[in-house]
Design brief:
single chain, 278 residues, alpha+beta, 8-stranded mixed beta sheet, 10 helices, elongated
């Protein structure tokens, strides 16, 4: 019995590791490392002294190479393991009033075709990114958000980060995604919105200054061309406000599907499309 449990736990850990690197460049790197290890074992088994001598200089450093090459994946996995909600202590952004203010600002920015990027913090803290911008610590309001993103003003470029019901900072620098499958038409603002959600469990709201379209990014995925009711639905589902049922939203934020299920009714609004796909 103990042996079976041991095998199941190991299999689960291996499966989770594969899921972390699936569909990323890290998957190809991991495959290359596996090939090197297999060549080393084959050289030992077949008695290939020259190949064994060469690979024996490389294999001891594979552990260090894994840490360096997979640092972002390791960080994201550990953050996922540590963001379980214990006794309701890990509360994120639960403020419908603030969400209404944000949505009113997003709607007006979209109508005026003013570019904007608003990041809503959830369980994983964004202090590192907040410190890269201008600290505000101001209550969330539509007028303040409109003022922040007015073209030509100092705080226009960068992201505004919201913690619960307060705007923590503006003009913040965010990491850009390097996902090769994304469309090349996406600008820096959209890539930053995706990049921050690849590292944390936040939700990013983007307004395109070229088209005025509203987009939402979460867990490395982007939905474009959303209506204001669609954005409200995404906020509620992401932060667990008025969640439909416990079966639809799991403990892990990464388990929340970004796209609506095919058997669920879609809200009114323009058609949705994923970034990088027609």
């Amino acid at each position: 019995m103990t042996g079976a449990v041991d095998i199941l736990v190991v299999a689960f850990l291996v499966y989770q590791c594969l899921m972390v690197v699936r569909g990323t460049r890290a998957g190809h790197i991991l495959l290359g490392i596996v090939v090197i290890v297999c060549l080393y074992l084959a050289a030992v088994w077949a008695g290939l002294e020259a190949l064994h001598s060469v690979l024996s200089l490389i294999v001891p450093y594979i552990g260090l190479a894994v840490i360096v090459l997979f640092q972002s994946e390791i960080r994201r996995t550990l953050a996922r393991l540590g963001r379980r909600r214990l006794f309701g202590l890990a509360e994120g952004f639960h403020a419908p009033e603030s969400a209404s203010e944000i949505l009113m600002a997003i709607e007006q920015l979209s109508q005026q075709k003013i570019g904007a990027l608003i990041v809503l913090e959830r369980d994983i803290g964004l202090r590192t990114f907040i410190e890269s911008g201008v600290r505000l610590e101001a209550a969330v309001s539509r007028d303040l958000l409109l003022s922040i993103f007015q073209p030509g003003l100092p705080l226009h470029d960068g992201a505004a980060i919201v913690q619960k019901d307060r705007i923590a900072a503006a003009a913040c620098f965010l990491p850009l995604t390097i996902n090769p499958s994304l469309s090349r038409k996406l600008g820096t603002r959209h890539r930053a919105a995706i990049g921050i959600t690849e590292e944390t469990d936040c939700l990013s709201l983007v307004v395109s200054e070229e088209t005025g379209r509203i987009s939402v990014a979460a867990f490395g995925e982007l939905l474009q061309g959303l209506s204001v009711p669609d954005v409200m639905e995404r906020i509620h589902r992401h932060f667990g406000v008025d969640r439909p049922s416990p079966m639809q939203i799991d403990e892990f934020a990464a388990d929340i599907p970004l796209a609506f299920k095919s058997d669920a009714p879609r809200p009114a609004g323009p058609p949705q499309e994923r970034a990088g796909h027609p």
